[in-house]
Automatic annotation (TrEMBL):
Region forming the signal peptide: 1-20
Pfam families hit by this protein: Cytochrom_C (PF00034)
Keywords linked to the UniProt accession: Heme, Iron, Membrane, Metal-binding, Signal, Transmembrane, Transmembrane helix
Cytochrome c domain sequence ranges: 22-114
Organism encoding this protein: Paraflavisolibacter caeni
Official protein name in the record: Cytochrome c
GO MF, one annotated term: metal ion binding
Amino acid sequence: MRTKTTLLAAILLISSTIWAKPTPEEGKTIFSTRCAGCHNVNKVLTGPALAGVDQRHTIEWIVNFVHSSQTVVKSGDKAAVALFEKFNRIPMPDHPDLTDDNIKSIVEYIKSESAGAAKQAVAVKDVDKPSESLSSFFSPGIILTFVVLFALLVTTILFAVRVKSLEREILKKKG
Ligand code: HEC
């Protein structure tokens, strides 16, 4: 019984980590406490406006830059050096404690706040709603959860059958 409970707990844990995608909501919280002092999505402040940042750089670049912008600048990365010069050589502070997923969620938030993206989102909602909700229903997380639960069910049934036949054998031997 205990092994089964452990197994079930493990499955729940695995499926919940798959479910926990970086969300714009989480990004918004981090952005407003850690980034909004210097950045706005659509306006230039001390730092550049961040709208479209995911199109200017790869996600790896953004993660590295947020972790330690000066490391990227000093590595000679052309885009980083140009930005640093353009923004009066103000070094962006390091945020080494943010995880990759934290930073991805900030990027999700930036996407959801970009002026262009807002219009696109409305258009997508109007046109594609049924297929969109269908595809999000069949997300990898849910499919995996179903597969795992199904496998668990089959194992349990097989186990029960095996116990029954063992029981019968024992009874046969006795009788
Ligand atoms: C003290 C001000 C400051 C804070 C706080 C700050 N930044 Fe910056 N950021 C800058 C400046 C200035 C630049 C321009 C590059 C440079 O000077 O190094 C920049 C550049 C960037 C870039 C590159 C933008 C582009 O257009 O290519 C990204 C991405 C970025 N910051 C993300 C963030 C995130 C995410 C946070 C919060 C976790 C944050 N920044 C917090 C000042 C700041």
